[in-house]
Fold this protein.
Amino acid sequence: MLDRAQALVEVLRRETGVRLTRRNAEAKIVSAERAILASNDGDHAVEGFVNWLPKARSAIEKARSAEREVAIDVAVAYHVFILAKGAETEAEEGRESHDP
């Protein structure tokens, strides 16, 4: 069961990394929006933002896709862990009932 727990922890770490990637990508857009609002050269700043925005949105979409994929991995790893835990509990109960 230890190997199942380690696998679950590893998948959860990967999930944390994927979420952080998405949050960072979203934060870049927010930062760019704030820079436009603070800019003295609004036209130039807006033009740069508009040109850059598709790339930023693409990065967010890739991160969201990765989040969906890792969510499936988390669900599977959790399910396998629970099954292993249940099997271990049943085995322990079986040994206890056979002990004199």
